[in-house]
């Protein structure tokens, strides 16, 4: 099953790469508060395919460090990043995006599916997940 999924993702990447240009993404985030809690994250990602902000396929790796009074934790995470759309030929379109991944212990991610109207406005369904997988 795992092999089939990896083969499917590889085929998607190869198909998408032939249709659009690759893109590189780098992010750094830092936050701290007066109670001594601190968050630091760095993410590096590559989109094998990116034709615009609503059509891409890629992967990302993230390092996250959390520190507070009496604790400190580090995480390495890997994500699949995907967005696409379908034009309904009636002035509306379905659009979706997702960032799904894991740190090896917990499934992490979010997804958004929405129906957009050319007359302005859209209906949105947002999904967020953080599930512990059995080890």
Summarize the structure.
With 135 residues, this protein is mostly beta strands. The chain has one helix at residues 2-19, and strands at 21-32, 38-52, 55-68, 71-87, 92-102, 106-117, 122-132. It is built from one helix and seven strands.
The total beta strand count reads: 7
The level of helicity is 10-25%
Q: Taking Cα atoms only, what radius of gyration do you get, to the nearest Å?
A: 18 Å
Give the number of domains: 1
Biggest sheet descriptor: 7 strands, antiparallel
Mean pLDDT: 80
The sequence of SSEs as H and E is: HEEEEEEE
Q: Tell me the structural class.
A: mainly beta
First and last CA, distance: 18 Å
Tell me the strand percentage band: over 45%
Task: Kindly report the spatial arrangement of strands forming the biggest sheet.
Answer: 1-2-3-4-5-6-7
Q: What general outline do the C-alpha atoms trace?
A: elongated
Low-confidence parts = none
Number of helices: 1
């Amino acid at each position: 099953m795992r092999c089939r999924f990896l083969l499917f993702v590889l085929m998607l990447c190869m198909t998408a790469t032939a249709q659009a240009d690759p893109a590189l993404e780098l992010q750094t985030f830092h936050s701290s508060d007066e109670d001594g809690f601190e968050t630091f994250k760095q993410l590096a990602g590559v989109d094998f395919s990116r034709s615009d902000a609503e059509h891409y396929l890629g992967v990302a790796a993230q390092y996250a460090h959390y520190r507070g009074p009496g604790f400190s934790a580090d995480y390495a995470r890997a994500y699949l990043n995907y967005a696409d759309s379908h034009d309904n030929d009636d002035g509306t379109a379905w659009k979706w995006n997702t960032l799904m991944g894991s740190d090896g212990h917990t499934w992490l991610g979010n997804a958004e599916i929405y129906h957009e109207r050319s007359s302005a406005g859209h209906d949105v369904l947002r999904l967020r997940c953080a599930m512990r997988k059995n080890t």
